[in-house]
Specification:
- 97% of the residues lie in helices and 0% in strands.
- With 58 residues, the protein is mainly alpha-helical.
- Keywords: Membrane, Transmembrane, Transmembrane helix.
């Protein structure tokens, strides 16, 4: 019975450790994707502003 209990506790501990490590990786990936999306939106937004200004000058 003690062996079974120690196996269960060890597997729960390993699962918890894996989840904690994966949260950090998922957070890092989410931050990277947010930065790429913000850069992409900023790039297209800047292009549209420049296009509007050049149309108004013509």
């Amino acid at each position: 019975m003690d062996v079974l209990l120690s196996l269960v506790v060890a597997s729960v501990y390993q699962a918890d450790t894996l989840l904690m490590e994966s949260r950090q990786v998922i957070g890092l990936l989410a931050a990277f994707l947010a930065a790429v999306l913000a850069a992409h939106i900023g790039w297209h937004g800047t292009d549209r502003v420049i296009a509007r200004r050049s149309r108004s000058e013509d």
